[in-house]
Amino acid sequence: MAKILTDREMSAIVAETVTNPGLIDDSDAYAYFLEDLADLICKHFGGERGAATEPDDDLPWTVAFRINECVPADGGVYRRCDMDVTWKDGEEL
Questions:
Q1: What proportion of the chain, given as a percentage, has pLDDT over 70?
Q2: Which of 15, 37, 38, 53 could pair covalently with 63 via S-S, beta carbons 3.0-4.6 A apart?
Q3: How far apart are CA 36 and CA 38, in angstroms?
Q4: What residue segments make up the domains of the chain, in order of their start?
């Protein structure tokens, strides 16, 4: 019999993976996980993903997202992220 996971349970698995570095302890595997997650975000909310970048002195793990025609004019789900960059009316300001 299959385990049935709710949307919140799936969200909790993703959140636990991001907050508990022991779940995926290989940096290459974790980069692939983040890129897969970024692909999912882009598929449903627009944008184009870059490569996952390992932490440095200033930032934790990151993935760059570029605007494309699928991102709403107001920036969509990205509008409250990385407030140093603004997307509006299909352009990066």
A1: 100
A2: 38
A3: 5
A4: 7-92
